[in-house]
Amino acid sequence: MFSLVQTVAVLSLASRFAFAINFPFESIQLTEADVAGNPDIAFGKLPASGNGKKCKTFPGDDNWPSAERWSAFNSSLGGALVRGIPPAAACYQGPYYDEARCAVVRARQGSSRFASDDPTIPFGQWQLDNPCPVPADSAAPVYTCNFTSLPQYVVNATTAKHIQLAVNFARNNNIRLTIKNTGHDFLGRNTGGGALQVWVHPLKYFETIPSVQDGHYSGRAAKIGAGIMTYELFNEMAKSNFTVGVAGGATVSAIGGWMQGGGFSILTSRFGLMADQVLSVEIVTADGKFVHAAPDENEDLFWAIRGGGPSNYGIVTSAVIKIRDPISISSTTLNWQTSPGTSASPQVSNETFWKGVNAYFSHLVRITDAKGIGWNYIRTVPPTATTPRTFTFIGQITLNNFSAADAKAFAAPLIADLNKVGFNLSNPEPSWFPTYAQQGFRPNPDEGVSNGRFGSRLFPRKNFIDPTSKEFLAAMTAIRSFVEDGGYMWHSVDYTPTLETAGYPGRTNAVNPHLRNAIMHSTGFDFASYGPETTAAEKIASHARLNEYLNKLRAATPGSGAYMNEADPDEPNFQESFYGSNYEKLARFKKKTDPWHVFHAVTAVGSDEWEVEGTQGLTTQQGRLCRV
Ligand SMILES: Cc1cc2nc3c(=O)[nH]c(=O)nc-3n(C[C@H](O)[C@H](O)[C@H](O)COP(=O)(O)OP(=O)(O)OC[C@H]3O[C@@H](n4cnc5c(N)ncnc54)[C@H](O)[C@@H]3O)c2cc1C
Ligand SMILES: *[C@@H]1O[C@H](CO)[C@@H](O)[C@H](O)[C@H]1NC(C)=O
Ligand SMILES: *[C@@H]1O[C@H](CO)[C@@H](O)[C@H](O)[C@H]1NC(C)=O
Ligand SMILES: *[C@@H]1O[C@H](CO)[C@@H](O)[C@H](O)[C@H]1NC(C)=O
Ligand SMILES: *[C@@H]1O[C@H](CO)[C@@H](O)[C@H](O)[C@H]1NC(C)=O
Ligand SMILES: *[C@@H]1O[C@H](CO)[C@@H](O)[C@H](O)[C@H]1NC(C)=O
Ligand SMILES: *[C@@H]1O[C@H](CO)[C@@H](O)[C@H](O)[C@H]1NC(C)=O
Ligand SMILES: *[C@@H]1O[C@H](CO)[C@@H](O)[C@H](O)[C@H]1NC(C)=O
To answer: Residue 378 and residue 522: Cα distance in Å, rounded?
Structure first.
């Protein structure tokens, strides 16, 4: 890599200059001279009123670019165009058949690294209606591998110019554009059938900036490329002695979907969301321009890109973020269950189990006021002929800037409350790390890929202020019913990214206002299959049942919403739920800056004016995109 540090330190100028220093890959930009009158790659001109077409051009359409034009586009890209072939094509008869390769795909299909290192495929399969399932064994595959349902071509972006060319080519040819980073998105916002995809994963650059002083923020910063993932930032934190909150998933990108939709970490109650850390971004907009957005430049774009939803206002190439001094982390783990347990997870009766859940959550305000977070799962195993339905609670209270002794003392009143309702727990020793970097460090992580669905809900702080209030009891009753009657697994991460915590410039960004009032982000999981063996009707029925139980969580939290990055793409009234009072302003900004609707993602602002052709009930992204 290279060094920005010297340059920035010597310049020590006002923010716009310091921040406008590009990574070398960003200095390679598309110019009018490159365009040279070629209409395929010409820049867009604003203001504009769109192209008036009902549908995006789809493979096989008369006006789909010819092989010659794709080839010319590839030349302008210097050869960075890749055909969108899913790895599982190796398992199907045809030009890509390769038994050895298929065996590798079969072995690695559940790996997040396998998915993120592939230019074409997203994490899940149902989002594209399972277009190329990996056959379970070497017997003849039962399903078909349908390339049309996947992005057709991928620009393997290693320069800003590559991204500008992709945006211009897609806009000028009215082709759907998708953006893949790690491909981790749960909703399918990263993919689309027949699309031209921009793969930003290769943009792995990182530099610390020793001093930023812009009159409002004074401190260290870092400039990070779009492809940097959680675990890579932990490595940098260890190397350069700093802290920035990152996702719980080690292979999530730092400034892609995670930041652009909010971005919570175990430090969120202390420092806010990732969207709150951003001081400036470099970004390719719908007209193909490469621009800088900061508090004093392209202010509306700077506002929208921080929390107003990924994949919708431009393609981010890098961001400058606030970084902080190292901070210690301590975690207390508390588990219990109704099946035979252990001393670390004692067995309790059904009634005691749920009393324990109430006692635990009655401490949520205290935990988050101490700038800590809660993290927990309630799992259930259905009854068998010989065993009753059982329940398991797994919980962790994670504090920062506490000594181990203080963290243990902090947990004592909660342990006392649990013992009051019939537990026999001693206060466990917390695990303690001198720095967040040490707590999160994973040298070469991998994590699981799933093909399941879930829904989520933000519980506002007012549900948890008074454990005798009807709001608290409504929350507990809804959660219990979700697990006990629904038979679903329930999960929550409990944090408070208030406006006050967001600070400068975070408090003026487009983060969902419902997140600002929240104390709990809860998720309920459907373990029913959404795989290729299920019919559309089965998927609809399974989802409808999940939604019925999610409605209980919604009923207990009137006026709240959901966190868009971990949510159901079929969330009812997503506009209000994911964006709250920001929706109208974001929609006006979207219309003005992207009248061509170059950028589209399910549940993104303005996406409600579009639908995917051939959709059989639940939202998927495999078909042609058309105006409603
Ligand atoms: C294992 C795991 C753990 C997670 N943990 C957390 C957590 O702790 N906290 C949390 O808040 N969320 C968490 N998430 C959810 C996460 O925020 C979303 O999955 C998010 O969409 C991932 O973003 P990505 O860029 O890595 O993935 P992608 O699927 O590549 O992209 C997601 C979205 O962002 C867009 N996008 C990506 N890069 C860019 C770019 N450079 N410019 C413009 N648009 C872009 C894509 O088009 C897509 O719409 C987790 C997810 C997983 C799978
Ligand atoms: C683009 O060009 C490169 C280099 O010539 C070539 O390897 C690649 O296959 C081409 N891509 C497509 C989609 O044809
Ligand atoms: C993407 O481009 C880089 C740099 O040219 C190259 O090393 C890599 O192999 C390419 N990846 C794919 C999938 O084409
Ligand atoms: C890291 O930063 C902390 C806090 O600023 C400081 O106390 C410590 O000495 C630094 N460690 C190293 C190795 O620089
Ligand atoms: C605990 O509750 C579940 C569901 O409410 C029930 O099925 C189970 O039988 C109960 N267990 C016992 C031991 O009573
Ligand atoms: C951590 O606690 C110390 C006092 O114990 C305080 O001085 C410091 O500001 C705290 N750090 C943060 C980031 O809040
Ligand atoms: C509580 O647990 C301790 C061991 O952890 C045990 O010695 C004691 O008898 C238990 N008390 C009750 C009332 O079960
Ligand atoms: C492949 O997918 C496309 C887009 O969804 C669809 O139009 C086409 O019918 C599918 N082909 C087959 C053989 O299923």
So the answer is: 11
Report how far residue 569's alpha carbon sits from residue 266's, in angstroms, rounded to the nearest whole number. Answer: 25
**pLDDT tens by residue, 605-624:** 999 999 999 888 899 999 99
599 lines ligand 1 (CB under 6 A): no
CB-based contacts of 508, cutoff 8 Å, min separation 6:
295, 303
Q: Write out residues with Cβ below 6 Å of ligand 5.
A: 350, 383, 388-389, 484
Q: For 259-280, b where at least 16 C-beta lie within 10 A, e where not — what string?
A: bbbbbbbbbbbbbbbbbbbbbb
What does the alpha-carbon distance between residue 461 and residue 463 come to, in Å, rounded to a whole number?
5
Instruction: Tell me the C-alpha distance between 507 and 584, whole Å.
Output: 18
Q: Whose CA is nearest to atom 3 of ligand 5?
A: 389
Give the nearest ligand 5 atom to 388 CA: 9
The residue whose CB lies within 8 Å of the most ligand 4 atoms, and thus the one to mutate among 236, 237, 241, is 241
Q: Is residue 367 part of a domain?
A: yes
**∠ at Cα 57 (53, 606), nearest 5°?**
55
CA distance 68 to 40: 12
With respect to residue 270, please indicate whether it lies within any of the assigned structural domains. Answer: no
CA of 507 to the centre of ligand 1 (A): 22
Residue 344 lies in a domain: yes
Determine, yes or no, domain membership for 203: no
Ligand number with the minimum distance to the CA of 337: 5
Instruction: Report the nearest-CA residue for atom 6 of ligand 5.
Output: 389
**325/373 Cα distance (integer angstroms):** 19
- Map 132-178 to HEC letters: CCCCCCCCCCCCCCCHHHCCCEEEECCCHHHHHHHHHHHHHCCECEE
In this structure, the residue with its CA closest to atom 5 of ligand 2 is 79
Residues 6+ apart with CB under 8 A from 193: 58, 128, 131, 148, 149, 150, 151, 176, 612, 621, 622, 623, 624
Q: Would the CB of 614 count as within 6 Å of ligand 8?
A: yes
For the chain, the domain total comes to: 1
pLDDT at res. 456: 98
Which tokens in the block code for residue 438?
């040490």
| Residue nearest (by alpha carbon) to ligand 3 atom 2 | 156
Torsion sign (Cα): 179, 543, 562, 580? positive
- The CATH number of whichever domain residue 402 belongs to comes to 3.30.70
State the pLDDT at residue 140: 66
> Containing domain of residue 397, as a range?
328-434
The response to whether residue 325 sits with its C-beta less than 6 Å from ligand 4 reads: yes
Q: What percent of the chain has pLDDT over 90?
A: 93
Q: Compute and round to an integer the Cα radius of gyration of the chain.
A: 25
- 327 C-alpha to ligand 6 centroid (Å): 9
318 contact partners, CB below 8 Å, separation of at least 6: 22, 23, 26, 203, 205, 223, 224, 225, 226, 255, 281, 282
Mean pLDDT value across the chain: 95
